[in-house]
Amino acid sequence: MDSYIITLTVIGIAVLGMAWMPSFTKQTGISDSVVYVVLGVIVYQLLDVLPIPNPVIFNMQTIHLTEMVVVISLMGTGLKIDKPFSFKSWAVPFRMLTITMVLCIASVTFIAYYFLRFDLASALLLGSVLAPTDPVLAADVQVGPPMEQVRDEVRFSLTAEAGMNDGMAFPFTWLAIFLAGSATGDFREFTWEWFRVDFAFKIIVGTGLGLLLGRILAYIIFNFSEKRKSIDLNDGFIAVAAALAIFGIVELLGGYGFIAVFVAAVTMRNYELNHQFHKDLHSFSDQTERILVAIVLLIFGGSLVHGILDHLTWQYALLSLFFLLIIRPVSSLIALIGTNLHFKERMGIGFYGIRGVGSFYYLAFALSKEPFLMDKELWSTVSFIVLLSVAMHGLTATHVMSSLEKKFSKSV
């Protein structure tokens, strides 16, 4: 059989099925991520002519595919947040971005290094790639489309956190890369350069250019073009085009493209909060994202069949459970001390920090820069955590979030 034709057929059927997933999830409470991972396992069990889904062999392909999904997802994530930006109103996601993220990285690094006998570079990389919550697989716990007219602090916080911290994981990933490539293993050898360039400079450039480019695009769309009728305000593909262009420009100029895309999306959204075109922009980016997610999840399901978990031990599995059930929720509760959120809301935010495509991207990216001693163990552990996250959150999120929404949400 022709492998290429069969692959196209499988992708086509899978993407077509995505059209029914919102209805399926609403009726069953089961996330589409669960369905597509299972579907990937079944398809790869039945068909041996599909391309081998091995992220170790196809490292660059893994980087580019996951990068594309995250970039488009970040644009859609920023566009659907109704709450106007301010440091006060966004205090909860900023706490999650700083306190929770740092605690998660430190905890995982400590356990992997001292108890699981990872080398320090691999332990730090594991903590770094697990730190960001995923904007791609978190649709069931995020806010809905723009102008939903519902205020839900749990969904808002998880949405904003996923948008912000997917870029903020980069400095720590680079720190692990530098440590892996260091001849001495001494942090003092590269700490200042890392802080100056990879932490401060790249974040500032990404944030600054995101603000600037988002503002320019918003002016062109909502002022210049609308007044002159030179652009059709039904062309939602502008969102995807803008995401790719902003990401590329900022990366070429030395900043973090992920940060810039999300900042630009929020800037555009805040420029004209009540403009109906935001719905078209979000809709197109969401549809594009769902197409790519279907492909990624099929491949992930296939990788489970082809041995991605071969280097998983019971100790690594225990760490995975401990991270999802203890480290992330407890770190979140610590970060949210002093807020006005109800305990159930805090637990919802802490528990539903889904790990997914972003973790795959950061791991593949780091392994493309330097060899890590525990690369196979890292892939197995991260894949198992994503699998657990998909299962645990995908089977419970719809019901739990609906319950929280009924109790705590307010119409605006």
Summarize the structure.
The termini are far apart. This protein has helices spanning 3-17, 21-28, 32-46, 59-79, 91-114, 120-130, 153-168, 170-181, 191-228, 238-252, 257-271, 277-305, 314-335, 343-351, 357-369, 375-408, and strands spanning 150-151, 410-411.
SSE blueprint:
Elements: H1 3-17, H2 21-28, H3 32-46, H4 59-79, H5 91-114, H6 120-130, E1 150-151, H7 153-168, H8 170-181, H9 191-228, H10 238-252, H11 257-271, H12 277-305, H13 314-335, H14 343-351, H15 357-369, H16 375-408, E2 410-411
Antiparallel strand pairs: 1-2
Helix pairs in contact: 3-12, 3-16, 4-7, 4-10, 4-11, 4-12, 4-15, 5-6, 5-7, 5-13, 6-8, 6-15, 6-16, 7-11, 7-14, 8-9, 8-15, 9-10, 9-11, 10-11, 13-14, 13-16, 14-16, 15-16
Task: Name the descriptors.
16 helices, 2 strands, 412 residues, single chain, two-stranded antiparallel ribbon, mainly alpha
Describe this structure in words.
This protein is mostly helical and 412 residues long. 72% of the residues lie in helices and 1% in strands. The chain has helices at residues 3-17, 21-28, 32-46, 59-79, 91-114, 120-130, 153-168, 170-181, 191-228, 238-252, 257-271, 277-305, 314-335, 343-351, 357-369, 375-408; strands at 150-151, 410-411. The radius of gyration is 21 Å and the shape is globular. The protein starts with a helix and ends with a strand.
Main sheet, how many strands, which sense, barrel?
2 strands, antiparallel
Q: Proportion of β residues?
A: under 5%
Spell the H/E element sequence.
HHHHHHEHHHHHHHHHHE
Our measurement of the CA-to-CA distance between the termini, rounded to an integer number of angstroms, reads 56 Å
How many runs of DSSP E, i.e. beta strands? 2
Tally the helices: what do you get? Answer: 16
Widest sheet, order of strands = 1-2
Mean pLDDT: 91
Structural class: mainly alpha
- The low-pLDDT segments are none
**Morphology call:** globular
